[in-house]
Amino acid sequence: MVRQRAPGEDASEAVKRGDEERLAEAEGLALAIELQVVARGIVPVSKIQPATLIGSGKVEELAGLIAAEKIGLVIVDHPLTPVQQRNLEKELNAKVLDRTGLILEIFGRRARTKEGRLQVELAHLNYQRGRLVRSWTHLERQRGGAGFLGGPGETQIEADRRQLQEKIKRLEKELEQVRRTRALHRAKRKKAPHPIVALVGYTNAGKSTLFNKVTGAEVLAKDLLFATLDPTLRRINLPHGTEVIFSDTVGFISDLPTHLVAAFRATLEEVVEADIVLHVRDIANPDTAAQAADVRKILSDLEIDADDPQHVIEVWNKADRLDEAARAQIETSAASHPRGQAVHIVSALTGENVGALLADIEGRIAGLAEPVSLVVPTEALGILPWVYDNSVVREREDLEDGSVQLAIDLTRQARSDLLRLKHRHPDVRIEGLPAMEEVED
């Protein structure tokens, strides 16, 4: 495996994202599709070679290592042109994959739904379209013309490109139908309405683990890059009864190809439509700052302001992996977050501080909970299930006349709903609601 750093790479970026961390990530991508990593290394390049990316001396050195270790696949953690890929395969006598090709292989393994498979196939075809010169061994042959035309006919490469283009158009039409279907589903949810909370973050930041902890779902969650690919939505009740929909999305990664982002636009539109976005970060990763910058860039491409403190909440996950000194440093950083965003230091694995995160979400969506005293007469006891589902009941007293007195905490949204109930049950006594909280019947 080769990790190559381009000479034109910005110096500040090189400081933020260490070569060793990038190499470890590249190895993690290989392990994500169960490849056996025989060798790994960093290849410094002073000048990119148009033919092979790296210098001839390094190519010879790698060819010797590959022959000695009987390596069948070389991964270059850098984009390769079709010519560079073809030449490296000839010189190294092994299959060569660049970063984009490897990510596509992983996505192909992970896609489970029809939508996911369509998105992966479209991205793969767009990637392959420019590499026909390498992918087919029979392109130099030509087919003869038919009928009266005769002549040499179209070259095989032209025919293959035409077939690819036809497939791409067909897939784009099918994905457009997926987008329309998703738009209909979102429109139905808005009529409900159920606020959307979308989880985004760098791959392997722990989004699916947090999603499972909050929703009780059983989405695949492993210490593995791109463990999950297809989006998952679950409806839950927050601590004070506010109903929301949580959406788990595909993880982001640095240098994600543009056509791959475009292919997954239907999935990522759930993030665009979300009322609140949780930016989940692996705070124990040494590269966490650079990973966060990559996520913010992709969110910006989706026209989402990642620095909006009202819309985006930063969730610093994997706190259980921090020692005391690192934890103290992280808490200091969170208290002085430069963008003024709310920061929650949590452990999705142990559940640490997840409750405070949910309370913050509910406060933003439904308003902060306030204490209310409620007396429900016998003829209105039918509203008690609603009370228990939409509030936190701190005290209950069953009175001698059969009525029930409750001390509860209600969000702003739930208080409005309770006043609507009171219009139908005027004998219900409510104390603690501001006089201005009036609603139409």
TrEMBL record:
Transmembrane segments: none annotated. Monomer. Associates with the 50S ribosomal subunit. Residues 154-188 form a coiled coil. PROSITE patterns: G_HFLX. Its main location: cytoplasm. Mg(2+) binds at residues 208, 228. GO terms for molecular function: GTP binding; GTPase activity; metal ion binding; ribosome binding. InterPro entries: G_HFLX_dom, GTP-bd, GTP-bd_M, GTPase_HflX, GTPase_HflX_N, GTPase_HflX_N_sf, HflX_C, P-loop_NTPase. It comes from the Bacteria. SUPFAM superfamilies: P-loop containing nucleoside triphosphate hydrolases (SSF52540). It comes from Aureimonas flava. Residues 195-369 form the Hflx-type G domain. The lineage of its organism: Bacteria, Pseudomonadati, Pseudomonadota, Alphaproteobacteria, Hyphomicrobiales. It is found in: Cytoplasm. This is GTPase HflX. One of its GO terms (cellular component) is cytoplasm. The keyword NAD does not apply. Pfam families: GTP-bdg_M, GTP-bdg_N, HflX_C, MMR_HSR1. GTP binds at residues 201-208, 226-230, 248-251, 317-320, 347-349. Keywords: Coiled coil, Cytoplasm, GTP-binding, Magnesium, Metal-binding, Nucleotide-binding. GTPase that associates with the 50S ribosomal subunit and may have a role during protein synthesis or ribosome biogenesis. Belongs to the TRAFAC class OBG-HflX-like GTPase superfamily. HflX GTPase family. Its cofactor is Mg(2+).
